[in-house]
Amino acid sequence: MIRYDILTEIAPILRDHLVICNIGIPSQELHAIDDQPSNFYMLGTMGLASSIGLGLALAQPKPVIVIDGDGSVLTNLGTLPTIANNVADNYILLIVDNGSYGSTGDQPTYAGRKTSLAAMARAAGCERVIECAAEDTGRVLTEALEARQMTVIVAKCDSGNRKMPVITMDPVVIRDRFMKAVAAGG
Amino acid sequence: MSIDARIVDDLQANGIEFVTTVPCKQLAGVIAEVDARPGIHHVPSNKEDEGMGLCAGAWMGGKRPCIIMQNTAIGVTINTLATLIQYYRLPLPMLISYRGELREPVACQVEMAVHTKALLAQLNIPTYHFHRQADVEELDQILKYTFMCNKPVAILTDASFWGGYGDQ
Hints:
The complex is a heterodimer.
Chain A: H1 3-14, E1 18-21, H2 25-34, E2 39-41, H3 49-59, E3 64-69, H4 70-75, H5 79-85, E4 91-97, E5 100-101, E6 107-108, H6 117-124, E7 129-133, H7 137-147, E8 151-156, H8 171-183
Chain B: H1 3-13, E1 16-21, H2 28-36, E2 41-44, H3 48-60, E3 64-70, H4 73-86, E4 92-98, H5 107-122, E5 127-130, H6 139-149, E6 152-158
Parallel strand pairs in B: 1-2, 1-3, 3-4, 4-6, 5-6
């Protein structure tokens, strides 16, 4: 399974929640699979999805799911101690770990070699860390939502991308409709 | 009232409830004050671009943010300022210790000080420079301006403003 297959499988779970989606092809794939006002697509700024999601989770009570990648977490490794030490039980960080920088030509990351992001998250102090196979992502994500406990999921999958159009929506439109979804009742 | 308490009073009077910080010796007092206030959620960051991500999320979640950092961070955060804060049009007051100005004891700090205003100007970031302690009188209006225009706004605070950190 590649990232696109995971996103297709979990889209019915994501659509009811606030989602912060990583820069590049992950956002393009999610946008193509199931565009929702409750999806915040990052159009730039490599590495900050997990930080934006944490700020959002700390500021309001609805569950927040961050779709991140191994490459972008490696770019912003300081995020793991910040997540661990500022516990938000409405926060789920889903790291789709395909061992490569998918948006830039599938160059290998260190997460595909010796480095374990799950072990790093645990060492940072994150208490609920689950590494799973790609096909189990939907179940693990559902369990994380039910647990109502801050969770880091590392979903191991194959490297590869679907060819998707770039997102042409204006960033202020993405942000505005997302904020309305945040503020909406229920 | 201490200058630190005065600054944090202004933050709170402008509805700021979420503050992230990366420390600087010059900012130690104001960071301690932020940490002590019950109405402020203080999340220390490991790096300033991470902190700006936190602030972006907090604002979208309904809480007015502020980042407190050193001017060396301008070198770290240019991409984040351009592609996140400015591109999505997010308000972000940046209370910045302006190291490398008069009364600076550490020579290396001057190397970023000479670039600080030029970089902020290149990014079209409204910039205010607090040099004398009375300059703090403008902080309230600067914060109102920031949340009026939804831009990052820099408040550079130098050693003279803080009463001479580094005077040997």
